[in-house]
Every structure is written in C-alpha cells, then in structure tokens.
Amino acid sequence: MILKSFNMAALCWVCAIAALAAQTVRLHWERQAHRELQMAVAQDRQKRAEAALKAQQETAKKESEHAAATHAHSYAFALAHEARNTAVRRDLAAVERLRVDAERRAATYRQMAKANAAACERLADRHAALDAHVVRGTAVVAGLAGDLDRRDAEVKLLRSQIDADRALFVKPKE
After folding, report:
1. Mean pLDDT across 86-109
2. Structurally, how many domains does the chain consist of?
3. pLDDT tens, 30-63?
4. Domain around 127
5. Which of 54, 68, 119, 125, by CA, is between 20 and 30 Å from 148?
6. Is residue 174 part of a domain?
7. Which residues contact 161 (CB under 8 A, 6 or more apart)?
C-alpha cells in the first residue's frame, strides 16, 4: 500500500510538473505574441509618421515652388510693363510727329492753293483731310497696339499664374 501511495504521490508530482511546464510554455508563447504585437504597432506608428512627414515636406516644396513661380511671373510682368509703356510712348511720339508734319503740309497746301487759285484750294483741303485721317488712324492704331500689348502681357501673367496654381494642386504619382 505504501508503494501504491508512493506511486500516487509521484504521479501527482509528475502531473503538477507537467502542468507547470505546459503553463510556462503557454506563458512564453503569449509573451512572444505580445512582443510581436508591440513591434508591429511601433512599426506602424513609425510608417505613419514617416508618411505624414513626407506629405508635409511635399506640400512645403509645392508651396515654395508656387511662391517662386508667382514671384517670377509678377516680376516678368513688371519688367515688361516698362517696355510696353516705352513702346506706347514711342508710338504716341510718332503720332505727334505725324500731326505736326500734317499741319505743316496743310499750311504748305494752303499756300499752294492761294498761289494756284480755287481748284488748288479744294485739292489742298482734300490733302489736309487725308492727312488728318492718317493722323487719327495712326493714333487709334497706336492706342490699340498699346492696349493689345498690355492685354497680351496680362494674359501671359494669368496663364503662368494658373500653371503655377495647378502645379500646387497636382497630386504626385506613386
């Protein structure tokens, strides 16, 4: 009987040790799974932080490029403005020279008309009217050319600004 109770006690000890070993293995696996989960969460956080930083850097780069493009277009428009004004002043000076020349020719025609009688006076009036039309037409053309140059420059400025704005909102291809 002692032997039987000894076997029973040994069996209980073996079962207890086996249960303890099983529990230890299970605890080891749980700890391993927990460490793996913590690593996965940390890696995910790092990836999201890197993606957010990259997006922020790309946005900052686009904003910087947009500001530089806007500045460059505005500067080019301002530089061209003086050239356009110079061209308009040159055209207006040419109109003034034509007007003065027309007045001189009209005076000459009148002198010729006085010398050649009434027929020449009508011819002089026609020449003077023709010169006046040339002067008015040249003035209109000069004004329209200045307006057209200014409008073209404004269109170029707006087009370049639209391109710069579109570049700001273009999504990068991945």
Report:
1. 89
2. 1
3. 999 999 999 999 999 999 999 999 999 988 999 8
4. 2-169
5. 68
6. no
7. 69, 70, 73
117: left (phi over 0), alpha (psi -120 to 50) or beta: left
Distance, CA of 82 to CA of 75 (rounded, Å) = 11
Longest dimension (CA), the chain: 168
What DSSP state is assigned to residue 117?
Answer: -
Please state the separation of Cα 145 from the chain's center in Å: 29
pLDDT of residue 2: 62
| In the predicted structure, residue 7 carries a pLDDT above the cut 90 | no
- Is this structure's pTM higher than 0.85? no
Question: Does residue 45 fall inside a structural domain?
Answer: yes
Who contacts 13 (Cβ-Cβ below 8 Å, separation ≥6)?
none
Cα–Cα nearest to 102, from 145, 138, 140, 144: 138
Of the candidates 142, 50, 56, which has an alpha carbon nearest to the alpha carbon of residue 96? 142
Cβ neighbours around 84 below 10 Å, total: 18
In sequence order, which residues have a C-beta less than 8 Å from that of residue 139 and are 6 or more positions away?
92, 95
Q: Is residue 105 part of a domain?
A: yes
Helices 118-169 and 2-116 pack at an angle, to 10 degrees, of 180
Query: Which among 163, 151, 166, 153 has a CA at the least distance from the CA of 75?
Result: 153
Do 98 and 134 meet the contact criterion of CB atoms below 8 Å apart?
yes
Domain-located, residue 101: yes
